[in-house]
Amino acid sequence: MKILVPVKRVIDYNVKVRVKPDNSGVELANVKMAMNPFDEIAVEQALRIKEASHAEEVIAISIGPQESQDTIRTALAMGADRGILVKTEHDIEPLAVAKILKSIVEKENPELVILGKQAIDDDCNQTGQMLSAFLNWPQTTFVSNLELKDKNLLSVREVDGGLEHMECSLPAIVTVDLRLNEPRYASLPNIMKAKRKPLEEISPSDLGVDTSKRLEVLKVEDPPSREAGMILGSVDELVDKLKNEAKVI
Amino acid sequence: MSILIIAEHDNQNLSAATLNTVTAASEIGKEINVLVVGHNCSNVSKQCSQIPNVKSILEANSEEYKNFVAENVSKLIIDLSKDYSHILAPSSTTGKNIMPRVAALLDVMQISDIIKVVDDETFQRPIYAGNALSTVKSNDKIKIITVRSTAFEASENTGGSAEIKSINGSGDTDLSKFLKSELSSSERPELTSAKIVISGGRGMQDGSNFGMLEKVADKLGAAVGASRAAVDAGFVPNDYQVGQTGKVVAPNLYIAVGISGAIQHLAGMKDSKVIVAINKDEDAPIFQVADYGVVTDLFDAVPELDSKIN
Ligand SMILES: Cc1cc2nc3c(=O)[nH]c(=O)nc-3n(C[C@H](O)[C@H](O)[C@H](O)COP(=O)(O)OP(=O)(O)OC[C@H]3O[C@@H](n4cnc5c(N)ncnc54)[C@H](O)[C@@H]3O)c2cc1C
Fold this sequence. Notes:
A: two-stranded antiparallel ribbon; 6 helices; B: 8 helices
């Protein structure tokens, strides 16, 4: 079977983002970009399934500007077989991303799509669930353990109350949480090899998908900042402050 | 304008997050209805009917809703959607699992994790782990929204008398099968609604050392949380995690013990009223958001704190 893994190019998680002075968004120019950390975990999981001989091909897809091909190359260097870049001029919303993925699924016929549970830029946590709804395939989200038995998928999900065990049959949609695996680093030879792997480039209009925005961003601003506090000399002082100044205990 | 709220519950008790969602809804409009979808969940419907300002409760009581499987619940919500201008759910793992499906099939863009209602079509939400706040206006015909519960006060839960209407389910989609859950049980308050939270990080070194935090927690009536590093190391279960990808908390007092203060952790606790940090590294970023910091070894400070509060 084939596995499809969408990968998003986002600001590196170590970078402190800055809001643009005109409040139109956050500063992206000259900022270190990287693959969304959840997507790395998705790629890793797909590769492990392939290495266990449950899949023949892992396809990495990125939807975004030309530079998103770097993110695809990272997935290829990790071990994905080929890439598809769906090139867009402006950043697009999860609803349109899910529509694009649906039409690629219909073309490529994978049996499994593994996605990150959220992107660390817009923090939406929507795409996998939307894709599942469009395809009418089962979904299992926020997965921290995944097992493939014949055509059955056994998964453990991280939920607010603890863990949930689910089962579904393929084809299916999985969104991954942080504890599913530790993604591998790409070795130098594999980075070189990735440069020769096939990378197809298409546009949303080739797929007939309308990517116009549904949410108008009126303003992006800094969150209220906290005032610097004080360093106390002892636990006695802390207990006193909590009781008599903050009055919280 | 008519609003539907998806109640969060365990078939027995309504979760506090639903009350915060009612407050968000009442800032959008007047006519608020609550959907209680579950199995043998009539207790929950009764609790919902006590919430003031709620007009009616729709109860869909059926076997296929027992474990809130997303495919089944979203189908029901879509079947009900034509009567509403807004559908809201708490931004819990249940809400996050279900609502994007509803949005997709109605061909609208969900507004995730709102922290402020500007008007009935404009909302504020955090992006980049809360390092920026985005105000967005939705032009979609129906607004599908998840609500960050810590950003809204809880509404009252007594004094109302909404009527309870029983409705039919939409059937089992047979897509996903729920096998079992492993839920943490604790006598302590729930993390996201506790007034005081004490959290431990990698500095705790071991799961058994969380016993020190639990002793303090029990004296203060607090919940216990953790950083991702502490969960990844297996010190405590995943449901303790506070942060961008864990739970968001905003208690009156948050005590961070042996936690460095990575932005992903701060994302889950920096709206707490008072923050205390106990860390032996004076340069730890947690001190930049802490109201009170003590630079010391936690293995001295926590037992001392325990002995000095009563
Ligand atoms: C996509 C993504 C999502 C993430 N989501 C989350 C999330 O939701 N929540 C979260 O918490 N993290 C999250 N993280 C991880 C985050 O980046 C940090 O790695 C994590 O928060 C670090 O945990 P920590 O502070 O416990 O560990 P460390 O950063 O290792 O800090 C340990 C601290 O303990 C102190 N210490 C050690 N020993 C003692 C002692 N004896 N006495 C006093 N102090 C001591 C040290 O000085 C240090 O400051 C995420 C990361 C990514 C990439």
